[in-house]
Specification:
Elements (H helix, E strand, L loop, with lengths): L3 H24 L6 H13 L1 H11 L24 H8 L9 E5 L3 H13 L4 E6 L6 H15 L3 E7 H6 L6 H6 L2 E5 L19 E4 L7 E5 L21 E5 L2 H16 L25 E6 L7 H12 L3 E5 L3 E2 L2 H12 L3 E7 L5 H6 L1 H10 L2 E5 L7 E4 L3 E5 L3 E2 H6 L2 E6 L2 H15 L3 E2 L7 H13 L4
Parallel strand pairs: 2-3, 3-4, 9-11, 10-15, 11-12
Antiparallel strand pairs: 1-7, 2-5, 5-6, 6-7, 8-16, 9-13, 12-17, 13-14, 14-16
Helix pairs in contact: 1-2, 1-3, 2-3, 4-10, 10-11, 11-13
C-alpha cells in the first residue's frame, strides 16, 4: 500500500495549520504562554484537521488594540510609593479610590444577607455580572428580586456568561425580561457573534446598586449566584467561599468595568470612557491606601493578575497566603513561590482536598510536589473551598474571581479588588487563618507511572481547561 499521498496530504494540512497559527498570532499580537504555544503546535502536527477549526473558533486570547494605542507607555507613578501601587499603576489599572463600610462575609448566610440588602436597597439602578445564575433556590430568589425591582421602576441589567448559563441548568430568564430587565449573554458558545472568540468567558462577579450616587454599593468576590455558594441544599453542603461588599467611590471603578463588558457582549464597538474616580485618601506615610479594582483578561494589554502575583512573590518579605479552588500554575509562578519560601518567606497555599473538577486535581500534582520540596506549606481543606485570595505581608490583599490556573490567569475576564490598608489586609489574613485552621498539611510521595502520565496529558491541554 502506497502511503505517499496520505502522508503528503497530512504534511500539507500541518503546514497550512501552522501558517494560519503564525499569521494570526502575528497580526493579532496574540502573545501566548510557552506551554500554550507548544500545545497548539503539537496539536497542529498530530491532528491538523481537528486543530485548525478549533483554533479558528477558540484561538483568540487577547482582543486587538487600536494601532494608536500600541507601544504606548504609562507615565511613571509620581512619588514612588509601595511596590503594589506602582505595579498596579504600571499595568494600566485605575488609581486607588475611597471605599467605606467594608464587610468581609464570614460565611454563606452573611454573604446572602448582604446580597439581598444590596439588591433590595437599590433606588435607581442594579447591574449584575455573574458566571453562573443557578436554576435553584438562590437563583430563583435572585430572579424574583430583580424582577420586582424592575417592576418598581429601577433600571436592572443582567450580564450572564454564555457558557455559565448552560452549566447552571438553563435558569428561566423569562420572568426577568417580562419585568423589563435587560439580559445579555456574554459570548454564547453555540451562536456567538464574535468569531474566533467563543472560548472567552466572563468570570467576573459583581452586583452594583446605584453606582455614582451617594448610596452606591458593590457586592463582589468569588461566589456565583447559586445555592452551593451560600447555604447549600438538602443533602449538599455549602461550599466555603469569600465575598465582600462596600460603598464609596471605588464602586465607580466596578461600574466602568461593567459598562465595557456590557458593550462588548452586545458587540458594540464604541464604549464611553470611564468617568474620573477621585483617588483615595493618603495614609500616614503620605501614600494612598484606598483600594482599586484589577481587571484581567483579553480586554487588558497585560495579564494583570498574573503579573501582579509574580511581582508579589518576589517582593514579599514575611508572608504570602494564597487560597484557590484550582491550582494549575505555570512554571514561572511556581518558581517565584518556591524562591520566596527558600529565602525565608512563609508561603501558605490553601486548596480543597478534593475540588469539583477532577482534572484540575490531577493537574496540580507536579506543581504541589515542587512547592512542597521548596518549603511552601500546602494545606488541604476538608471541604470544597471556592475562595480566591492572596495576602502579601501587610501590604496587599487581592480578593475576587481569579483562580490560580491558566484559564483564569490567561483567558478569562476576571476581576480582583486590591486593598492596601494594613488593617484591612490583616482582616483578610484573619479570614485565611480561620479557613486554614482545620486543613491538613499535604503529604507528598513520588507519583507512579500512570499518575505521572495522567498529569502530563492533562497539563498538555490544561491551557484551555
Amino acid at each position: 500500500m502506497d502511503l505517499t499521498l496520505p502522508l503528503t496530504l497530512h504534511g500539507l494540512a500541518v503546514a497550512l495549520g501552522l501558517l494560519v497559527y503564525v499569521v494570526a498570532a502575528h497580526l493579532l499580537e496574540q502573545r501566548r504562554h510557552p506551554t500554550a504555544a507548544i500545545a497548539w503546535v503539537l496539536f497542529f502536527v498530530l491532528l491538523p484537521y481537528a486543530a485548525l477549526p478549533l483554533f479558528l473558533a477558540f484561538g483568540s486570547r487577547k482582543l486587538a488594540r487600536p494601532r494608536s494605542a500600541r507601544g504606548q507607555r504609562l507615565p511613571a507613578a509620581g512619588g514612588g510609593g509601595p511596590w503594589a501601587l506602582r505595579t498596579i499603576h504600571a499595568l494600566g489599572q485605575a488609581a486607588p479610590a475611597r471605599y467605606e463600610s467594608l464587610q468581609i462575609h464570614a460565611g454563606g448566610a452573611q454573604a446572602l444577607a448582604a446580597l439581598w440588602r444590596t439588591i433590595d436597597g437599590a433606588r435607581d439602578s442594579i447591574d449584575v455580572c455573574t458566571f453562573i445564575l443557578g436554576a435553584d433556590a438562590v437563583g430563583h430568589a435572585v430572579i424574583e428580586r430583580l424582577a420586582a425591582k424592575a417592576r418598581a421602576g429601577v433600571r436592572v441589567r443582567l450580564l450572564l456568561d454564555g457558557l455559565g448559563s448552560l452549566m447552571a441548568g438553563r435558569p428561566r430568564l423569562a420572568p426577568l425580561t417580562d419585568a423589563g430587565v435587560r439580559v445579555t449573554l456574554f459570548v454564547p458558545p453555540l451562536h456567538s457573534p464574535l468569531k474566533g472568540r467563543t472560548n472567552l468567558r466572563n468570570h467576573r462577579k459583581m452586583v452594583l446598586a446605584d453606582a455614582g450616587s451617594p448610596q452606591q454599593r458593590l457586592w463582589s468576590g468569588g461566589r456565583n449566584l447559586a445555592s452551593e455558594y451560600f447555604e447549600g441544599e438538602p443533602g449538599k453542603a455549602a461550599w466555603h467561599d469569600l465575598s465582600f461588599d462596600l460603598g464609596g467611590t471605588l464602586v465607580q471603578q466596578a461600574a466602568a468595568l461593567f459598562e465595557r463588558d456590557w458593550a462588548f457582549a452586545g458587540t458594540e464597538r464604541t464604549v464611553p470612557p470611564p468617568p474620573p474616580v477621585p483617588p483615595g485618601p493618603p495614609g500616614p506615610d503620605g501614600h494612598e491606601h484606598g483600594a482599586q479594582l484589577v481587571a484581567s483578561g483579553p480586554d487588558q494589554v497585560d495579564d494583570t493578575v498574573y503579573a501582579l502575583l509574580l511581582t508579589a512573590a518576589y517582593q514579599a518579605r514575611q508572608r504570602i497566603a494564597l487560597a484557590t479552588p484550582y491550582f494549575v500554575p505555570d512554571a514561572a509562578l511556581v518558581m517565584a513561590l518556591a524562591l520566596a519560601a527558600r529565602r525565608g518567606v512563609t508561603v501558605d497555599l490553601l486548596l480543597p482536598a478534593k475540588s469539583n473538577h477532577r482534572l484540575s486535581d490531577i493537574a496540580r500534582g507536579r506543581a504541589l510536589r515542587a512547592l512542597d520540596q521548596a518549603g511552601v506549606r500546602v494545606w488541604l481543606a476538608p471541604r470544597m473551598l471556592h475562595a480566591k485570595l492572596a495576602v502579601i505581608d501587610d501590604e496587599l490583599a487581592l480578593a475576587g474571581s481569579a483562580n490560580l490556573d491558566s484559564r483564569s490567569l490567561f483567558l478569562n475576564y476576571e476581576m480582583m479588588a486590591a486593598f492596601h490598608d494594613p488593617a484591612v489586609v490583616r482582616r483578610f489574613g484573619d479570614w485565611f487563618d480561620r479557613e486554614r485552621a482545620d486543613a491538613a498539611a499535604l503529604q507528598t510521595r513520588p507519583p507512579g507511572f500512570g499518575r505521572d502520565l495522567a498529569e502530563g496529558l492533562v497539563l498538555w491541554v490544561g491551557f484551555q481547561l
